Amino acid sequence: MGFFDLLNHIANLLLAPAALAILLALCGRIFMKKRAAAPVLLAQAAINFVAGLAVVLAALVWTQHDGKMLMYGALVLVVATVQWWFQHR
Hints:
Helices cover 81% and strands 0% of the residues. It contains 3 helices and no strands.
């Protein structure tokens, strides 16, 4: 695997948790009446991203492959739970 292939692989691995973290932080601001515990949108998205990244890395270690449906299901479940906790804290 060359350098650019490795860079592309890492970028694609980080894309799913980053996109989900930003999307859920924005949707939480738009659709939830109660304000989130983290007042700054960037902080909320960053915490969601760290939780999602932990799930992706744990699934990568556990299954030795990325892109498994188990990983994506756990990613959505964990990041949505963190976002829910922000909204109801």
